[in-house]
Amino acid sequence: MLGFPLPYEEELVYSTIARARVHFCIQSPKELLDEVYNDRKVVATIDFPSHLQKIAQHYIARNISVEKLIYRHTLFPLYAPFIPEKRRQQCMEWLRSSSKGSVYLSLGAAASKLPQFDTLRYCPQCVQLQLDKLGECYWQRSWQVFGVECCLLHGQAISTQIPRHSFHRHEYLPATPKICALVHQKTPTLNTLLIAHQVIELLSRRAQVSPTLNQWTQYYKTLIRQCGFNNGENICYPAIKEQVLSTWGKIWLDTHGFRVHDEQSCWLRAICRKHRKSFCYLEHIVLLNSLLDNNWSINQVLEQVAHYPKERNVFVNREKKSENNASSAQRNLWFQSVRKIGPKQARQRQKALYAWLYRHDHDWLLAINNKYKRDRRIINKRVDWPKRDRVIAKAMLGIKNEICENLSAPRLTKNWYLSQISNPASVEKNMHKLPLCNQFFNKYSEGVSEYQTRRLTRTIIRLTRLSEPIVKWKVLRQSGLSEERLRPVTNSVFNYVMEKYG
Ligand SMILES: [Zn+2]
């Protein structure tokens, strides 16, 4: 298929195919399947689409591999780090070729107790940005993730009328301004934001070997011990349960399918013990967020998990007793040096001691290293940030003064201002060092209602100049707005103007 659209950043494969349907004006779903897959039986799937080899063939010249499609344009990376490596490989093979539902079953997504939502969701303001920037809109991955009920930038996600599992199993439906209307978004809850942050990190991960069940078991064992929720070798379940309940609240846990209770079958009990099965991303996030401090990140956790032995070393356990005495001497040596110079340097200077402890006293070694970890962040002193702050703020003020009279200007958002200056990425990344720029954005970034009002004003002025009657439908149409999409403030300004001049 020549001219098959390239996927946008974070776009679902489903969405790209739906856009192809629009680009090529294909009405019949079966005809679309013929063109895209050369196979009329493929089911339109949102989370884990299969037959990706056939999609990748449309991009041979663009070097977009199947792996890239899986990790950047499906929800697979949310599940991948939590399933054993062999299963990850198998799922990738199914996604590449044909799956027939096996991926769902294998990831536990279908059988999982996660109460899935029924329809596709979107963020109205992101859709607006897509329209402004690209002239079309698309379904973004993170909007369709259970537990992420918001967009990190704009607020609560909105449900459409489009079912996720449509009655028409072969139909791809594109995101359009009509389906994704610009409606008001509520402020998301703290729990939702917390999950969204970790989910975005997971989605941006690239293909990597998954940790084993033993690595997860050992990681949680150490973490629980570090938090003091242990009683010798045993976990102190009531304390962990209390901690999870106080972090998330009973209502949230119950409504999201994570009820915690005292029975042996409780998911929380199972995840704190030896892992005999995989747990899903949300179960991990719920527990980790209860045990770690506020700045925790799932990427850092996965990095630490990877340091544990892949398989339980039976030999070491058998030998453990006889080596206890030796261990306390080695521990003492390591403790002295790690306290003075930090784990990294200690490891370089005492390789043999490190190797011995790694083999024989692994949990203790990781715990102590973690405790004395040195903050190795290097403060970059080369940039004079206060000066840069003044220069950029002044430049943006100039841009603002120049454009503020122009009623036809695009919406003057923070991103728009950033796009006008050189090196916007650096400014965005270092916003915390730029208080003047921050103030500028807070004061002069144009909100949706302001932008709508400006568009209405522009139309009314033009109609007046042309001595044309100011009629409601005409004003709205020429402003590219509809009555439903008007924000309350814009609406009252509009009504006032219409009463007076209409
Ligand atoms: Zn958004």
Spell out the key features of this protein.
about 500 residues; mainly alpha; 5 domains; two-stranded antiparallel sheet; two-stranded antiparallel ribbon; globular; binds zinc ion
Task: Walk me through this protein's architecture.
With 502 residues, this protein is mainly alpha-helical. The protein folds into five domains: 13-193, no CATH class; 211-306, no CATH class; 314-371, no CATH class; 385-446, no CATH class; 449-501. It is built from 25 helices and six strands. It has helices at 13-23, 29-37, 52-57, 66-73, 76-79, 85-96, 102-107, 124-134, 190-203, 213-226, 237-248, 250-255, 267-272, 281-291, 298-306, 314-349, 351-360, 362-371, 385-403, 414-420, 424-429, 435-444, 448-465, 472-478, 488-501, and strands at residues 119-122, 150-151, 155-156, 158-163, 230-231, 234-235. Helix 9 (190-203) packs across helix 14. The longest helix is centred in the middle third of the chain and has 36 residues, at 314-349. The two termini are 51 Å apart. Bound molecules: zinc ion. Zinc ion binds at residues 123, 125-126, 151, 153-154.
Distance between the termini: 51 Å
User: What is the count of helical runs?
Assistant: 25
Sequence stretches where pLDDT stays below 50 over 5 or more residues:
none
Number of strand elements = 6
Proportion in helices: 40-55%
Oligomer: single chain
